[in-house]
Amino acid sequence: MNNQLKLGLTLFLLGLAGVLSMLTIGVPTDLLPPEVSTRFSPAVLQLLLLINPTFMLLAFTFIGTILYEKVNLEVPTLSRWLYGRPSTITIQQQAIYGTAAGLGAGAIISVIAGIFNSSLPREFIELSKKIQPTPIARFLYGGITEEILMRFGFMTLAVWIVFKIRKNLDATTYWTGIVAAALLFAVGHLPIVFTLSGSPSAGLVLYILLGNSVAGLAFGWLYWKKGLEAAMIGHVFAHVAMLFAEKVFHLQ
Fold it and tell me: How much is the pTM?
């Protein structure tokens, strides 16, 4: 088994663990069309909801595995463990930077939530409680799967495309990819908002975009500077900070 295949397979299996963690979230059948909720049991619906993220994970893992080395991005710790690839980035550095950036991003997101909380529609808050991810899903799906999808997959692809256009692998190229992935990450949260609210207010849309863009920028910077594992650590600790704020300040 070659090194690329080892890394790709390992990342896919790690991401799959995150996908499976979504089974800990109950399916709000009252929010589904009657023809769906009556045709399938909650257990079957949970399994069906895993199909799309699994295929996305497979596609983006493949893209990232093919392209990440071409734009000098790294998965240093896993590469070192799997096939002894040397790197100047250590797991200790990844842990320090990931924890600090993640807690900072989580704190900023919590502040944004606090600012917007009083103006959010009550029906949105009540409905969102019904699909609140469990901590294990936030840590595994958010921390691992979403980072493989958005950073290792999409950000790597965006950086590679910009590099091919500009012929220059400088900070502008990386930041273009970081911003593109952050915006996609933020916009990716809007479908559920429209599902819950029907016609969400401009303030609600701005809240979703701001909060998730901050996170995406932080995690993209970590991936660029300290490797994919640092972005994963950062994402996990962002959720730690947000969970703390939600418990203490009753934020959504």
Answer: 0.92
Express as a percent the part of the chain with pLDDT over 70: 91
> Are 209 and 186 a contacting pair, CB within 8 Å?
yes
| Cα separation, 92 vs 94, whole angstroms | 5
User: Tokens standing for 32?
Assistant: 């589904």
CB atoms within 10 A of CB 41: 12
Tens of pLDDT, residue by residue over 91-120, are 999 999 999 999 999 999 999 988 887 777
CA distance 177 to 173: 7
65 vs 133 pLDDT, higher one? 65
User: What's the Cα-to-Cα distance from 217 to each of 27, 149, 157, 177, 252, rounded to whole Å?
Assistant: 30, 15, 16, 10, 21
**What does the alpha-carbon distance between residue 1 and residue 8 come to, in Å, rounded to a whole number?**
11
Alpha carbon distance 157, 162 (integer Å): 9
Q: What is the pLDDT of residues 138-151, one digit of tens each?
A: 999 999 999 999 99
Alpha-carbon 11 to chain mean position = 14
DSSP 29: G
The structure tokens 């992935």 sit at 181
